[in-house]
Amino acid sequence: MVSWIISRLVVLVFGTLYPAYSSYKAVKSKDVKEYVKWMMYWIIFALFTTMETITDIFICWVPFYYELKIAFVVWLLSPYTKGSSVLYRKFVHPTLSSKEKDIDDYLCQAKDKSYDTLVTFGRKGLNVAATAAVLAATKSQGVLSDRLRSFSMHDLSAYQSNPTEMDSGSVPTQSAAGQQRARTMMRSKSESGYTKASS
């Protein structure tokens, strides 16, 4: 456990933070030689990080595994060994140069497929949202019609609760407020008819 913690700290400080600061200094000084040196380092470190993820799962039980990782990071950074430069020039550059066209084609296909997948999922998402909106509108309309139906049933039951008016066949009497509204409407109609006739 202690070895794991120490190796994580070494990789973090010496494998990431120190090279990041040195890369900043190279960019600031605009020294092309330093640019190239740190670009080679970051390519090797990206490969190291990828491999580290796999090896941490499968071979972390190997004796001195974490100590070997620490030594490897120090070897990559050392100005005497120039480990990242050696690995890049001997292995990474020739491999990537020979496979560059295949990798570029694969990346283009992956980009196109991801775009098509994004469009397909976007359409499906819009269809699901539209369907949900239509269902919600239909459901709310059904609730509204049920409400209206229940109001009309209530009104019918109110009329049926007064059997004397319904049995005699007479029209139920209006309330005083309803009669007043009807008179006001009749008066306004007659006045508007009078003004039209006089003009």
From TrEMBL:
Region (Disordered): 161-199
Entry annotated with the keyword Transmembrane: yes
Pfam family of the protein (one): TB2_DP1_HVA22
Transmembrane segments: 38-62
Family membership: Belongs to the DP1 family.
Name the UniProt record assigns to this protein: Receptor expression-enhancing protein
Organism encoding this protein: Salvelinus namaycush
Coiled-coil annotated spans: none
Skewed-composition ranges (Polar residues): 161-182
CC annotations in GO: cytoplasmic microtubule; endoplasmic reticulum membrane; endoplasmic reticulum tubular network
Domain of life the protein comes from: Eukaryota
Subcellular compartments: Membrane
Source organism phylogeny: Eukaryota, Metazoa, Chordata, Craniata, Vertebrata
GO molecular function terms attached to this record: microtubule binding
Membrane topology: Multi-pass membrane protein
A Gene Ontology BP annotation from the UniProt entry: endoplasmic reticulum tubular network organization
